[in-house]
Amino acid sequence: MKSAQWLLVLSAVFAGVFFTAPNASADEKPRLNFLLITADDMNWDSPGCFGNTLPGVTPNIDKLATQGARFEQAYVTIAICQPCRASIMTARYPHRSGALGFNKIIPGIPTLPETLKAAGYYTACIGKAVHTIPSRHKTAFDETYDMADLGYGRSPVRYRDTTQGAIDQAKKQNKPFFLNVNLHDPHRPFANAPQEQRARNPKAWEGVPLVANPYKPEEVKVPGFLPDLPEVRMEMAEYYTSVRRCDQNIGEVLKVLEESGQADNTVVMFLSDNGISVPFAKTNCWLNSNRTPLIIRWPGTVKEGSVISEKMVNSIDLAPTILDIAGMENLEGADGASFRGLIDPAVSSEGAGRDFVFVHLNAPSNGRPYPMRGVVTKLGSYIWNGWADGDKAFSNESMSGRTFSAMQEAAKTDPDIAARIKLYLYRCPEEAYDYSVDPNALDNFIDNPIAQKKIIRERARLLEHMKATEDPQLEAYSAFLAELNKAK
Questions:
Q1: How many CB atoms neighbour CB 218 within 10 A?
Q2: Residue whose C-alpha is closest to residue 481's, from 386, 387, 390
C-alpha cells in the first residue's frame, strides 16, 4: 500500500478513536436525553390530573400524565425555592449540601448537571438558574437563563426559543442533553394581580401580555386550609390563572421536544418545587407545603397512565434516578436513592421508594431562622417546630398579597380565623396530623392519648435521621426530648 493510502487509513482510525460522539455508535441505541421541568409554587393538587376540577387549567400537564406515571406520594424535602432545587441537584438534605436556605452549595459537593456534563451530556438550565446550583450555576451548565432572559420567567416565546436552542446545540455537538426547564409561574406576582401590574415594565415583561380570560372568583375552589373569604377567592382566581399560564409554557416546551424528533428518546420529569404561596402551604412542613405533583414519562418503558401510590419518593431521589437510568453511579455522598424500580419493569422494584420521608425548613428568604423538621408517611406526619417559643412570630413571603391581609381583617370578628392566625404566627413545639382524614392539617392530635405510641415512633425516627445526617438542629431536638421525658 502506498504511503498516501496509509495516511488515509491512519487518519480514519484516529478520527474514530478520538472524535466519535458518546452516543454515536452504530451498534448501540442513542443515549437517553433528560428534560426536567419544574413549576414554581404550584400546589400538588392544582393540576387537573391530581384532582383539580377547574376547566382547562392544565391540559398539557394532564396529557403528560396520560403518557407516563403519576406519583401520588411524592414530596420535596424542603418547601422553599433555592434549597429545594439545590437538594434536587445534589441529592442531599439541605444541611448536607450547605444550601440550608438561600445559601451557597459547599465547594466540592458533586451535582447532577456537572456529573452529566462530565459524562458527555449537553446541559442547560432555562429559568431559576441562580437558585438551581447556587454559586456554581455558570459552570454547572453549558448555558443558563434566568427571569430577565425569559420575559419575567413567563414568556412562551422565550421558553420555546431557549429550549429549541439548547436542543439544537446538543444535536450540533452530537451529544445527549439534560435540560432543566424551570417555569417562574405560578410564583407571585400572580397573573393580572395588583402585585404583577406594579412589577411590570416593558423590557422585563416583553412578550407577556395581561391574561385576556382570567378565572373568576366564583369559578375557583378555596383550599380547605384557608377560610372562604372574598379576597381569598380573588387571590385563588389569580393563582389558578397563573397555573394555566404556566401550563401553556410547559406546552410550548413539550411541543419543541416533539418537533425535534427526540421525544421518544427523552425521559421527561415534571414536579413543583413546593406548595402555593399562601399561609399554611409554602415555606412550612405541612402536606400542602411539601407534597408535589410528580409525573415521569419514559416512552417504551413507563406504562402510560400508570399511578405510583404504594411507595413514597423524595426530591433528593430524582438525581440518583436520572443517573441510574443513564447507566451511571449515584452522586458521591448522596442521601437520595434511585426509585427506577418503581417505573422500569426491567428492574427489580425491591428497595425502590420509601415508606416515609423527612422534610426540613431552616430559613426563608428573609433569613430569619425558623428550624422545622418532620416525618411524613402516607397517612400522616409529625412536625417539630424548633423555633416556637410562644413569643417569636413567623414571617415569610406567603403572607404578602390578599390572603393573609383578608384573614387578619376577618379575625377581628371571627374567633376561628383569629385562632388560625395565632397558630400560623406562633405555632407550638410539636404537631401531628392524620392526612387520611385531615389533609389540610386542621386537627393537631399531638396530645391525643390514643396516638402517643405513634408519636413516640415518629420522634425516634426523626432523632435517628438527625443523628445519621449530623443535623445542626440535633442538639436542640435532643434537649427538647429530654425535657419531655423529665415532664413525664
A1: 7
A2: 386
Q: Map residue 158 onto helix, strand or coil.
A: helix
Please give the Cα distance from 464 to 92 (Å, whole number).
Answer: 16
Angle, CA of 15, 28 and 170, to the nearest 5°: 65
**Tell me, what amino acid is at 319?**
A
Q: Would you state the pLDDT for residue 195? A: 85
Angle at the Cα of 351 from the Cα atoms of 347 and 354, rounded to 5 degrees? 120
From the CA atom positions of the chain, what is the Rg in Å?
24
In whole angstroms, what is the distance from residue 235 CA to residue 402 CA?
6
Question: Does the N-terminal peptide bond of residue 94 adopt cis geometry, omega within 30 degrees of 0?
Answer: no
pLDDT of residue 202: 75
Q: Which three cell numbers stand for residue 160?
A: 420555546
pLDDT for res 5: 41
DSSP letters, 311-339, are SBEEGGGHHHHHHHHTT-PPPTT-S----
303-333: per-residue pLDDT in tens?
Answer: 999 999 999 999 999 999 999 999 999 999 9
Q: Are strands 430-434 and 313-314 parallel, antiparallel or unpaired?
A: unpaired
In this structure, are strands 122-126 and 143-145 parallel, antiparallel, or unpaired? parallel
What's the pLDDT at 27? 52
Q: What is the pLDDT of residue 373?
A: 98
Name the residue with cell 451530556. 121
Structure-block grid coordinates of residue 459: 420522634
Q: Give the domains, in start order, of the chain with CATH numbers.
A: 33-354 (3.40.720.10), 360-487 (no CATH)
Residues 247 and 241 sit within 8 Å (Cβ to Cβ): no
Whether the CB-CB separation of 276 and 288 falls below 8 Å is answered with yes
Residue ranges, the chain, pLDDT below 70? 1-28
Coil, helix or strand at residue 408: helix
pLDDT of 17: 35
pTM of the model: 0.93
Distance CA 396, CA 383 (A): 18
Q: b/e per residue, 56-91, with b = 16+ CB within 10 A? A: ebbbbbbbbbebbbbbbbbbbbbbbbbbbbbbbbbb
CB atoms within 10 A of CB 416: 9
